[in-house]
Amino acid sequence: MKRWIVILICLFISGCAGLGDYSINLSGNYSLLRTSSHNITIAPKSKNGEGMWDENVIPAKVVEVGWNKDYIIAKQQAYPNEEYFYWILNVKDEYVEGPFILNDFQKKIKEYDITNLELKLVEDIQ
Fold it and tell me: Is the keyword Lipoprotein in the record (predicted)?
């Protein structure tokens, strides 16, 4: 009987929504938000209260991200065709550019002299 209770508790806990959700502070007022395995976005923190965010500036699914004090760059896996797009967020000016294909993204990061920024897998930075 105890064995079944332990198994049921483990199944219940692993099936609970929200256990894998998190936020990671990036530059400025921005955070990487994970609200499900397919809904990983970048949004500014809300002025309305802690733990709240405004509308996404980079849509789901963000799979890689890199940042410094001036810029946030991101790689997005678009649904349903699973194409990859790239985004550049100017933190100071609160200006987002994208989506870009890889070639155009590489040109832009050279133009902005941010080639030293490295995209890292979201799973590796949490």
Answer: yes
> pTM for the complete prediction?
0.80
Cβ atoms within 10 Å of 27's Cβ, excluding its own = 14
Given a contact cutoff of 8 angstroms between Cβ atoms, the answer to whether 55 and 87 are in contact is no
The amino acid occupying position 5 is I
**CA within 13 Å, CB half, 63:** 11
Structure tokens at 115: 């080639």
- Residue 37 CA neighbour count, 13 Å, CB half: 1
Q: Which element (helix H / strand E) includes 25?
A: strand 22-25
* Residue 3, token pair as written in the block: 């064995």
The residues near 66 (Cβ < 8 Å, ≥ 6 apart) are 72, 73, 74, 117, 118, 119, 120
How far apart (Å, rounded) are the C-alpha atoms in residues 117 and 126? 18
Domain range list for the chain: 16-125
DSSP symbol at 46: P
